[in-house]
Amino acid sequence: AGRFAEAVRHYERGLEIHPEFYEASLNLGVTLERLGQSERAAACYQDAIRSRPDLASPHYQLGKLLLSLDDADGAVRELRRGLEAEPEHAESWLELSRALARRGDDSEAIASVRRAVALRPAWEAAHRQLEVLIPSSGTDSPASVRRGSSGSSPR
């Protein structure tokens, strides 16, 4: 935690000097999230979105955070906003799949993860999510994914 706390101080100092510094806001949010400070992290992601609304990354980070806080609706909203700005952001498609599945929107979740696979065909995390969503039995009934995580590998 010591190095993270030091990083927070540096990012905050940088933002005092350059408040519109997108990367500092985004990285501060990631660091605060790792320190368990979700509310502050969300505020940083929102600052990053205001600075660079044309990028998917801050929406992705906020969406991931919201999903980890069991706000699937908020996660879907943010991830979709990011994808409007940057439709080729594969990570957002995968996270959107997880959020949609958590909400019970199974067919949309499958379509989203398929988009992630199309963008990054060799991406194992996306293939694992697809396997969770479409069990080997061939049905499109992914009840198990609703309990899944938003990490790099679904449960």
Description:
The protein has helices at residues 2-17, 22-34, 38-51, 57-68, 72-85, 90-103, 106-119, 124-133. Helix content is 69%, strand content 0%. By secondary structure, it is an all-alpha fold.
End-to-end distance, in Å?
Answer: 27 Å
Q: What is the residue-mean pLDDT, rounded to a whole number?
A: 86
Q: pLDDT under 50 segments (min length 5)?
A: 137-155
- Cα-atom Rg, whole angstroms? 16 Å
Net shape? elongated
The percent of residues in helical segments reads 55-70%
The proportion of strand residues reads under 5%
Largest sheet: none
- Output the number of helix runs: 8
Q: What is the structural class?
A: mainly alpha
Order of helical and strand elements: HHHHHHHH
How many β strands by DSSP? 0
Q: What's the assembly state of these chains?
A: single chain
The gist of it:
With 155 residues, this protein is mostly helical.
Key traits:
155 residues; mainly alpha
Break the fold down into its secondary structure elements and pairings.
Blueprint: H1 2-17, H2 22-34, H3 38-51, H4 57-68, H5 72-85, H6 90-103, H7 106-119, H8 124-133
Helix pairs in contact: 1-2, 2-3, 2-4, 3-4, 4-5, 4-6, 5-6, 6-7, 6-8, 7-8
